[in-house]
Amino acid sequence: MFFTPSTLVHAHKLCHICPDIPGHEQNVPAAAWARRGLKTKRSGATQPKAPMSTVVDRQPVPHKKCVLIVDDDLELASIYEHLLETFNYEVRSEANGALALKHLLSRDVDAIICDLRMPELEGDLFYGAIERVKPHLCRRFIFLTGAADDPKYHFFLSQVKSPVLHKPVHPERLLMELQRLPEA
After folding, report:
1. Which of 58, 75, 103 is the last residue of a domain?
2. What is the DSSP letter of 184?
3. Among 14, 37, 58, where does a domain finish?
4. What are the pLDDT digits (tens) for 4-29?
5. Considering only CA atoms, which of 124, 122, 128, 115 is closest in space to residue 168?
6. Whole-number Cα distances in Å, 39 to 1, 27, 30, 35
């Protein structure tokens, strides 16, 4: 199931009018309940069953996919971070492969969006390190780079099976590639 930001806001508002969700009634004034013809638990009356429209609120929360952006262009990384958060991704950014490697040693992610040309540990070397310590993460890479035409990376890019997107990438293309990645 896919939720847009507006449907998430609507679902959040539904929580505040649903009388059967424990704990929410104390956040809503009694007058608001009365306008809907309902009595609160504070008055001792039982409340009617929740309307069918609140079934969405009771569904288990889908796994929020975690994305790691590895790029030394902090401004661009921030733009992609905000874009992905808008689409309900949990996002973390690191400025180079060394910092990203440290992060991944303690936690797995669902996707890694990685630049090639970076200080300290470049994208191809970062990928090689991940291949040795957490090989299952290698199928979750998307390379997002302005250096794909650099002869230095030709051999690496011809061997790796990850998508390679050229900067600047259109947001829809990035989202599409994220959805194509194998599940964790």
Report:
1. 58
2. -
3. 58
4. 343 333 333 333 333 333 333 444 44
5. 115
6. 33, 14, 8, 10
Give the whole-angstrom CA distance, residue 102 versus residue 99.
Answer: 5
The answer to whether residues 94 and 41 belong to one domain is: no
Please check whether residue 46 is in contact with residue 10, taking contact to mean a CB–CB distance below 8 angstroms.
no
E strand or H helix at 81: helix 74-86
Tell me how far apart the alpha carbons of residues 10 and 73 are, in angstroms, rounded to a whole number.
35
* Tokens describing residue 172: 């829809």
Q: Tell me what the mean pLDDT of segment 83-102 comes to.
A: 96
* pLDDT per residue as tens digits for the range 94-150: 999 999 999 999 999 999 999 999 999 999 999 999 999 999 999 999 999 888 788
